[in-house]
Specification:
alpha+beta, 13 helices, 5-stranded antiparallel sheet, 3 domains, 394 residues, Dna Ligase, domain 1, globular
Length: 394
């Protein structure tokens, strides 16, 4: 019997379309001899849909016209099984059962632990990082604080909330000046290079901050690395075992790898081949760095993976100063664009095998966690009447 894998993607996020691209890529490569794919698309208005047609990228060009052919669903647990139920009509009807969830989502409201927390509350096993890792990996400020505590290399930075900027922008300008220009201004919890600005001098700072605050209440400003080379390394594993991929060097005509570099491009039909999503960015594999730096970055990647409690596949992005020959962690991507399959293919691991390993890790992790104690059978509330509750302070 095949394992039913619910691939969940979309969501109310500025990275919605990126999620669709990555998910369709993955669904085309999941081994359908072992797994039965159940696509679950979360629209931008947060409604969940399922239908086999959702595996076709062309559907999303006119989804509002085609959504009547898909079923609106919710995920629920009945007994020991998990089901998708139709939400329309007087009576909820089970559409299909599900064994495992596979979130392939990007950005706020989904990748940041929100979706993972929902899946945990339902109880269904799911692929990838859990709530804590997902949350840490999304917040560029908190992750830097963790990395700093671990002694991992990061650039100088400062951060603030939009309310603090409104109260005293001059203090924030002063903190940025201490870092020294040029700087990179970012929304703290977004990915895919959305809302990011390269700032060469102070007169450009206010506009950059305003741009970042369009997307987030928290803003981070980082020292820009001069003589920049950007490289990425993927990690596959869990808390007990990590495996690092080859390292890629990504290229761009801009000061940093932009959204367009990562995702713009397209052709009609399916998304097979290394030309869509992050796989379409200009890159050199392996990166043109020394063997010593390669091994050091791979080891740092595994340490960062463990430090943030990540799971499944992640991609960790680095900034290298060619002049000083120093590297810095830029940020992790807990569910990377294209699931970083192109890095693993260079190690000899096919995309189909990568997805299979991710699902297998999920099953092993679920079995292990099921052995832990999460609640007690005794119910202390049964010992209390109204009078007993009044005495709780004692």
């Amino acid at each position: 019997m095949k394992i039913k894998v619910a691939v969940i993607f979309g969501g109310e996020t500025v990275e919605h379309e990126v999620s669709v691209i990555t998910a369709v890529q993955a669904m085309e490569h999941i081994n359908q001899d072992k797994y039965e794919i159940v696509p679950i698309y979360i629209s931008k208005d947060r409604i969940w849909y399922t239908s086999p047609m959702l595996m076709d990228i062309d559907v999303y060009k006119d989804f509002n016209d085609l959504k009547r052919y898909a079923k609106q669903v919710v995920l629920t647990k009945i007994g020991d099984k998990f089901y998708l139920q139709n939400t329309k009509g007087l009576f909820k009807r089970n559409i299909t059962d599900i064994d495992i969830a596979f979130p392939i989502v990007h950005g706020n409201n989904v990748e940041d632990g929100t979706l993972q927390g929902y899946l945990d509350s339902v109880g269904i096993p799911y692929v990838g990082s859990k709530v804590l890792g997902s949350s840490l990996g999304q917040d560029k400020v908190v992750m830097k604080q963790v990395f700093k505590d671990m002694g991992l290399p990061i650039v100088d930075y400062t951060w603030f909330f939009d309310s603090e900027y409104a109260d005293d922008c001059e203090e924030i300008f002063g903190n940025v000046k201490k870092i020294g220009y040029p700087v990179i201004v970012k929304p703290a919890t977004l990915g895919s290079s959305v809302g990011i600005t390269y700032v060469k001098e102070e007169k450009e700072l206010a506009n950059a901050i305003e741009e970042a605050m369009k997307y987030d209440v928290k803003v981070v400003v980082e020292k820009a690395v001069k003589n920049l080379v950007e490289v990425n390394c993927s990690v596959l594993g869990n808390y007990s075992h990590q495996e690092a991929s080859v390292i890629e060097e990504v290229t761009s005509d801009e000061e940093f790898l932009t959204y367009a570099d990562k995702y713009i491009g397209g052709s009609k039909g399916k998304l097979k081949g290394p030309s869509k999503g992050m796989a379409s960015a200009s890159r050199i594999i392996p990166a043109r760095i020394s063997k010593e730096m390669t091994e050091s970055i791979q080891e740092t990647s595994k340490q960062a993976f463990k430090a943030l409690n990540l799971g499944g596949v992640c991609r960790i992005d680095y900034l290298i100063d060619k002049k000083t020959n120093k590297y810095y962690i830029n940020e992790p991507n807990t569910i990377p664009g294209s699931l970083a399959f192109y890095l693993w293919e260079k190690t000899g691991k096919k995309y189909e095998d990568l997805l299979d390993e991710m699902i297998t890790l999920c099953i092993k992790d679920y079995k292990n966690r099921s052995k832990k104690v999460y609640s007690f059978e005794s119910n202390i509330l049964s010992n209390y009447g109204i009078k007993g509750l009044k005495g709780m302070k004692k």
